[in-house]
Structure formats: C-alpha cells, structure tokens
Sequence to fold (381 residues):
Amino acid sequence: MIKKNFGFGTQIRKSPFFDSTVKWGATGFSVYNHMYIPRDFGDPEQNFWNLIETAILCDVAVERQVEITGPDAFKFVQLLTPRDLSKLSVGQCKYVLITNAEGGILNDPVLLRLGENHFWLSLADSDILLWSQGVAINSGLDVKIIEPDVSPLQLQGPNSGEIMIKLFGEKIKDLKYYWFRELNLDGIPLVVSRTGWSSEFGYELFLKDGSKGNDLYEKIMTAGKDFGIKPGHTSSIRRIEGGMLSYHADADISTNPFELGLDRLVNLDTNIDFIGKKSLQKIKNDGVNRLQVGLEIKCEKLTGPNTTFWPLKVKNKKVGKITSAIYSPRLKKNIALAMIDIDYSNIGMEIDVSIDAQIFKCVVIEKPFFDPKKKITSKLL
Fold:
C-alpha cells in the first residue's frame, strides 16, 4: 500500500472531488489558484497513454470561475480582453487573454457566455477575481463580480464521447467544439462544454453544486468502466505536444501576445476598447524582440518536466530560456517550448541549453509538435 502524507492545511482549499481522487489513487498534489490539484496517479507516461488511447478523468476544480453579471456585463468583459467578442453567442466559449495596461498577459482563460449579460471566466493560475473587482470599481459600469460555486472536471480522450453518451444520451453528440449546454445528471446541475486542457477530444463538466462533487466523480467513473476510463491528471506531455500554454511558465505578466504568436487574439483594427490597447498597438508597430518557439533537445530521455527555466545560449551568449520541456514517448524525442531572442528563432537554428550544469544541443522546430490543425479536438462525435 502506498503511504499518503499530503500535509494539508486550511489556508489552501480542497476541491469538491478531493475524497474521490484520493480513493482512486492520487498520491501527490500541487497548488494552483490557492487550491490543491492532484498531480500524481502513478507513471505520468502511462497517464499520457491512457489519455490518448482511452479516457481519463481529471479534477480541475482549480480552474476557478469569475462570474460577471449585470446590465453592463458584456461591455465589462470586452474591457478585460483584446479579443473581439462581438460575435460571441450565448452557449459559446472562447479562449481569451486578459491583459494589463502595458499589454502584459495576466491570464489566459476560457470565456463562457451563459446569457446576454452573464459570463464565466474559467481561469488559469492567477487572481483575476481580484483584478476584475478592482477594474470594476473605477469602470463606471454596472456589474456584479463573484466567484460562484462552480468546479470543473475534465473527461478527456478518444472514448470520452461514448462515456458522455452513456451519461447523457445521444443528444450530447451534436455538442460542437467550444460550445456548451446546461444539463442535469440525476439531480446534479452542470454546464457541459466541449473544451479541455489536453489537446485531445474531450469535455469539461462544470459542477454547480459543490456538495455533489464526489457523487459526480463516481458516476463518471462508473459510466466509463467499460470504455477503459482511468483516474488521471492533466498531462504535461500532451499539452506540450499541443503547444498549450501553462501560465507562470510559458507566459506571465511580462509576456505579451505577439511574443507568443497569439496575434489572432488581439483585435486592434476595430473600435472596441480594452485595457492595454494603446500598449499593444505600440508593440505591434515596433515589433517584438523575442518569440516563443518549439525546440527539440538532443540529449538522453528527460525523466520529467523541467522545474526551473533552462538558459539557452549561442556562443556562450544567453539568448533565451526553455519554459516547458518533456520527453514525448509518442514522438520519441525531447520537446520544449522556449522564449528566445528573435534573431535565433528561425526553424533549424541550433542553440545550446544548460541542464544541471551540462550543455546539450537544441534545434528550433515547428510547434505545435503534434496535430497542429487541432483535428482531434474539433472533430464531431
């Protein structure tokens, strides 16, 4: 039997699914948005194969929601993000950036529009609840901003569709990528979306009653038994393969959208107003000095993700850093996301990386590293 010694305290919250994750084998946790998130169900490579071959259920209640309502809610949400929301329909999701006055990225949430003036921001790891409430004070807009009792689970992988049919019936089959609907599962109120932080086909189930967390987790595991479902955690391997950002690693307050190649999320050629518009216009006009790139690291198989930023050098001159690195068992190579001086960002450029005082060669390659057109995530069931 594996001994579990987590050392929990009251200053960090547990999710509504906590007891079930421990029951199903969680042996390690980390902290995200002031909450515990299960990060270890055994071999991370096996977790990766479970994800891409069958299905995994992940507790991602740490993706806290900021709920924005009121007569001016749409106008306020548009103020927060440089992405044009004018075509965002009720029932639709969009991946957005939250920027500050300097154009720095504060968060990269998924935005859900539940009503004409009813929105959720499903957050990465930063305090956008506090930022939003602070912006609202001086905005002159009539909005109410709270953290609702909402906690998401991720059901991801090729068999997740069949599991959802077993839970909700055939009607779930026509739910499109980046759309959602409100459903009820045996008295459990949910918002179910075709989204997820995995680069695989899947769903997120937003629980709207925290008292029913373990009930929901168990129902999904029972429904998925015949489809090979496994308890799991978000896969660093798969998200790096897919070029998905991890906030505080691949982006932070000092990173702007153009450095990440996310120009499509910044609409400067419209009359919409948002925080950071002038700064982002200047950055676009001046051009950036660095870019995020994909790298292949030419060394022995990495035994896990990097826990520090690895410096990149050319002729002993520091030119950037590796922000996320992992070994991909599918691609059979070490892959990484890196922020690098623009002069060294061309495909095929060779660069040195320092890992634990050893120097290895890297080469700049195309990213995302797998399924760049997102055919897996966007397919119809």
The mean pLDDT is 96.
